[in-house]
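Action item from last meeting closed. Structure (454 res):
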């Protein structure tokens, strides 16, 4: 934290501009050595959040004409004196400026170190720091909106409120244990049960939305499966809007998994096109079929492609019976049916859609069904904050389990100090999400809420 760090903030390569970020205790000193402002009077006023035009030098050598953005501590992203150097976009120019900053006392920043300093200086919590990366890597409008909501503190406020509720429960319990002789109001078991149940309800709301949040952030693992030559690869190509998979009339063309990502209705699908599932004597094809069955186990969504003018096979029935809760049946090649001929009603499990890849039919219905499943029946993303990564979800799940254990202990008449153990664990787990230091704040919270010296 005592070092001054510098790094490229834009990807290295030819561009109209490059931006270098410099942050730390010696940042101002380095800039004063290297920057010759065009308007020195304006520069000397030390105005914050300004852009200043001038020359960037390394000793007597002019490296480039630059614009420097000045952000004075603590009003900067990192909470330190920070300067952003906007130079011309050639990689050689940017590299020379980077090396000059290092020669004058900075060091090259480690990956994510600017955001790390922002967290350590209290400018961001862990949820917001993770949201920075999620916003950069977002590939759909929905995932970008989710990351932006977290960056703006929506989820942090909800987690902080949950943490305060748990602290309140623990503060009353600890006061009753440590200072029984004082005139301190203690919770009876009925009131304590009420508080814990309210907190569990808050946990449940957040956990219920975590499945949607995780999908929006990481994508929905979607496996395309079916018999050979039913149109799986054609479906993949249609969703990708490119000829990614080879399509022929010869069954068994796809021998191995093909993995691609595609945005469908604002939802990122991690598509897996599998080999046609059938009986085969071909060694390579059998290996592909084994991988297809394995992919079904880990899939979050299964697109089972069947042929409209054929009855379901035993294999297709097996997939429907085993994975009915996550199957969408696409009855492909509807154009092959004779006019006025009804489909045999054998699709009683799963959600089925009359489909034709060739004629572009059924795609809108497929998109609507995917969105319905991701948003759990809601027409649009809920305004409630959403957990979105495994770390957050795991910590909150552990918090939920500890609260439930505390509630169970309360119901069977366990003493207060035993109940407080599970409440402390719940506090520890929820604090992991945003990065609060639990141990240093617990006693302070207790003393601020009760008149201990009375």
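Sequence:
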């Amino acid at each position: 934290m005592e070092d001054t760090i510098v790094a490229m903030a834009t990807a290295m390569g030819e561009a109209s501009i490059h931006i270098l970020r410099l942050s730390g205790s010696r940042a101002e000193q380095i800039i004063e050595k290297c920057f010759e402002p065009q308007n020195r009077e304006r520069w000397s006023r030390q105005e914050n959040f300004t852009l200043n035009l001038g020359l960037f030098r390394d000793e007597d050598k002019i490296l480039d004409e630059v614009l420097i953005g000045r952000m004075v501590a603590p009003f900067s992203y990192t909470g330190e004196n920070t300067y952003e150097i906007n130079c011309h976009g050639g990689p050689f120019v940017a590299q020379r400026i980077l090396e000059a900053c290092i020669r004058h006392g900075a060091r090259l920043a480690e990956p994510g170190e600017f955001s790390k300093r922002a967290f350590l200086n209290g400018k961001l919590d862990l949820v917001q720091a993770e949201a920075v990366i999620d916003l950069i890597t977002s590939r759909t409008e929905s995932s970008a909106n989710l990351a932006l909501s977290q960056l703006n503190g929506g989820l942090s406020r909800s987690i902080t409120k949950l943490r305060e509720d748990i602290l309140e429960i623990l503060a009353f319990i600890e006061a009753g244990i440590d200072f029984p002789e004082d005139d301190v109001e203690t919770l009876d078991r009925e009131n304590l049960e009420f508080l814990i149940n309210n907190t569990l309800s808050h946990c449940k709301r957040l956990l219920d939305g975590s499945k949607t949040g995780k999908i929006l952030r990481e994508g929905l693992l979607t496996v395309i499966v079916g018999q050979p030559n039913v149109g799986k690869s054609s479906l993949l190509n249609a969703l990708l809007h490119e000829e990614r998979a080879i399509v022929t009339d010869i069954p068994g063309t796809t021998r191995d998994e093909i993995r691609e990502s595609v945005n469908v209705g604002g939802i990122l699908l991690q598509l897996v096109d599998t080999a046609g599932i059938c009986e085969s004597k071909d060694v390579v094809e059998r290996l592909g079929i084994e991988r297809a069955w394995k992919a079904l186990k880990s899939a979050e969504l299964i697109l089972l492609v069947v042929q409209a003018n054929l009855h379901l096979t035993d294999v297709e029935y097996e997939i429907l019976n085993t994975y009915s809760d996550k199957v969408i049946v696409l009855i492909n090649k509807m154009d092959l049916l004779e006019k006025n001929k009804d489909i045999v009603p054998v699709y009683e499990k799963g959600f089925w859609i009359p489909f034709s890849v060739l004629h572009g039919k059924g795609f809108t219905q497929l998109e609507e069904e995917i969105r319905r499943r991701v948003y759990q029946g809601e027409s649009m993303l809920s305004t409630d904050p959403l957990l979105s990564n495994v770390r957050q979800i795991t910590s909150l799940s552990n918090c939920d389990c500890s609260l439930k254990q505390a509630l169970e202990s309360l119901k069977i008449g366990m003493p207060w100090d035993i109940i407080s153990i599970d409440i402390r664990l719940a506090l520890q787990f929820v604090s992991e999400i945003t990065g609060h230091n639990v141990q240093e704040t617990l006693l302070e919270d207790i003393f601020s809420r009760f008149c201990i010296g009375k």
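Note appended to the action item: The chain has three domains: 5-120, 154-214+386-449, 217-374.
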